[in-house]
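Protein modeling request. Please complete all fields; requests missing the sequence field cannot be processed.
Requester role: graduate student
Desired output: 3D structure, token encoding
Chains: 1
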Amino acid sequence: MKIGELAKAAGCTAETIRFYEKIGLFAQAQRTASNYRLYGKTHLERLIFIRNCRALEMSHDEIRTLITIMDHPAKQTQHHNAHVLLNSHLHHIDERIAELTALRMQLLKLQQDCHPCHDSCGILQGLAEMEVDVKAGKSHL
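Delivered output (141 residues):
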């Protein structure tokens, strides 16, 4: 199948497939004489696996590790490595939940401190005055 057909079957875009090929998550496709990429069933299965991992917000490095484990099932340590990776990812998710819970509490406090009957907006004033713990590299933006 061509890249557009693969993208449709896997529920992603052709650009996503090209990106995964570029970063080494996805095997390069064979090319036709006219330079079209040709994909098979194994490509579709791998792409669905990657898509499912991304839906669980796994990083490309985590997915790369899981693919290595999947491609070398005979190694005794691989099953353990998959568990270690999943536990690490769960810990990361727990940290994010705690951060989002704290963020929610801050926003609720701003909302509660706003009194529409006053001349100034309590939300804007609170945002201007509050102190935040800025963590490098952590943002939803």
